[in-house]
Write a structure and sequence with these properties.
The complex is a heterodimer of chains A (141) and B (149). Chain A has 141 residues and is an all-alpha fold. Chain A is 74% helix and 0% strand. Chain A is built from six helices and no strands. In chain A, helix 2 (32-38) packs across helix 3 and helix 5 packs across helix 6. In chain A, 60% of the residues are buried. The relative contact order of chain B is 0.11. Classes of the chains: A mainly alpha (141), B mainly alpha (149).
Amino acid sequence: MFSYILDAIIGGAIIGLAASWLLLAKGRVAGISGIVGSLLTPWSDDSVWRLSFVGGLLVGGALLVLILPTAIVAPSGRSLALLAAAGLAVGYGTQLGSGCTSGHGICGLSRFSPRSLVATLTFMATGFATATVIGLMGVGS
Amino acid sequence: MNRPLAAFLGGVIFAVGLGISGMTDANKVIGFLNLAGPWDPSLAFVMVGGIGVHLALYRLILRRESPLLSTRFHLPTRRDITPQLVGGAALFGIGWGAGGFCPGPGIVSVVGFCSPAVVFVLAMIGGMGLHRFLHPPVTTTANPTEAPS
C-alpha cells in the first residue's frame, strides 16, 4: 500500500509538472476533455498544439508499454457495451460540465476555482456511487 | 523549441505521470471508486501530488507577462455555478465510475492494445460531438476563455 501511495504522489507530481509546462510554454490549461473536445470544432491555429498534445499522450502511452508494461490495464468484467455507454457519458458530461479530472481536479483546484471545486466534488460523488453500485451488483469482481 | 513540439512534450510527460500514478490501470481506478470492495485509497494521492506541484508552479508562472511561446495566458474566468456545470460533472462521474476511465487515461490506454479503451475513447468522442451538435457554441470567438478546460 505504501508503495502505491508513493507511486500516486510521484505520478501526480509529474502530471502537475506537465500541466505547469503547458501553462508556461503555451499559456494553456491542461484539461484533457477541453483539448480533445475543442478538436471537434473547425480547424484553427489552436488545432495544431491541441493535436500535438494528444499525439504526445499517445506516444507517452507507447513509452509506458515499453518501460512500464504493467501500467495500462483494461477494466475486468466490464462489457464493451458498458464501456461505450461510459464513454458517451464521459464525453457528453465533460463538455456540458466544462472539464474532467485534469481540468477541474488538478488545474482548477490549483487555482482555487469555485466552479472546479463544485465540479470535482460532484464527479467524485457520482463516481464513487456508480462504481459502488456496479460493484454491489457483482460486476467485475 | 517550436510550439507544437512544446505541446507534444507536455502530452508525453502527462501520459507518463498518469501511468506511474496508477490512473491508467482501470481496475485500480474502479477499486478506488468502489467503496463496497477491498478499498484502495492510494489514487487520492494523485491529486495531492498534482495539486501540490501545480499550485506552487502556477503562481510562479503567472508572474510572467506572457507564456514562452504565446502572446497571453488563456485561463478560465467564469465563477458561476450553473446546472450545466453540476449536471455535466455528475454525468462525467457516472461514466468514470462505470468504465474506470476518465479522458486522459482512456486516450493513453488506447496504445496499450486495450480494446475496452478504444471503445471507450470512440464513444467519448461521440459524446463530445453529440454535445457540440445539441449545444453549438454561441459566440466562442467573442470570448475564447469560456472553452471547456
